[in-house]
Amino acid sequence: MYAVRFDKFGPAADVLIYETVEKPVAGPDEVLVKLHTSAVNPSDTKKRLGSFPDLLDGGYVVPHSDGAGVIEAVGENISDTRIGERVFVFNAQYGRRFGTAANYVALPSAHAPCLPEAASFEVGACLGIPVMTAHRCVFADGSVKGQRVLVTGGAGRVGFYAIQWAALAGARVIATASNDADADACRNAGAEIVVNHRDHNWPEALLRATSGEKINRVIDVEFGANLENVLKVIAANGVIATYSSTVEKEPQLPFLKMMYLDLTIRMVIVYAMPEEAKAHAISDIQDALEMGRLQHRIARLMPLSDCAVAHREIEDGKVRGSVVLAVDTH
Fold first, then answer.
1. Which residues contact 210 (CB under 8 A, 6 or more apart)?
2. Which of the listed residues 17, 63, 81, 286 has the most CB atoms within 10 Å of its CB?
3. Local structure of 150: helix, strand or coil
4. What are the residue boundaries of the structural domains of the chain, listed by start?
């Protein structure tokens, strides 16, 4: 089969190789998925750059966690009735060497849930890290119905879905965005209020818009860089659910200020989500797709052979929406 692989860390154009490799076989409790699409996420590019120094100890790696396709074969303990099922794939290259940047992937059956007919394979590739992360951030600490939820960077891959989950659940959603186009995307997703996070007075603007009412839950894309401002708008007993801190990788916490607010800080990563949380997210995703309740933004669709270009698109940080690779299924 064809796959993209790397056997050393470095820039995408230097280390990603598109070539033929051995086709995998479904082991016990696994399914073999013939992939139609593969998505690139920031964690994929960071792994390629060496964020997990021992990642290559077992040999070359086929990158990417997310994708979508059709089950072609099943391993021991898995019913043959799954053969032919349309699925989306998550956690493909986590704790394992081989991800979705290939014609086929073999992985645990639980990591290949059914993809409703209403959703395309391109949409299916967006459901792992972006949608499941957003779901966990919004729902991990209980219902948000009637609460004020702030989504920072609401036009981003995760933020866009977080706005939708919170709005669908009955929250009053406030988002931050840096330009008019992103602000419009946030409003279309369900945000009632949008403030510009490039304005150093954005906390004041937010509180004016809410008539002084503070935020119950924050879904945060830049924990360290945003913390000072978030603490100006969050209510006592609030929750900050964060999935990234790229600008300040090792932020310092104003402990006493946070303690006196009795805050909860939740770190979220799909790779380590509890099984119950994964099942909850999968069920809600499938229901939402069947009812057409989720909007999706696919910013780029390109062939698998252009994987290095796709990685650069993600690393540049300018693309709004998911970057999806089309896998040749012939």
1. 148, 174, 193
2. 63
3. strand
4. 2-126+296-326, 131-271
Output the CATH code of domain 131-271: 3.90.180.10
The pair phi, psi for residue 242, each rounded to 5°, is: -125, 145
Superfamily of domain 2-126+296-326: Medium-chain alcohol dehydrogenases, catalytic domain (3.90.180.10)
Distance (Å, whole) CA 201 – CA 198: 9
Residue type, 121: F
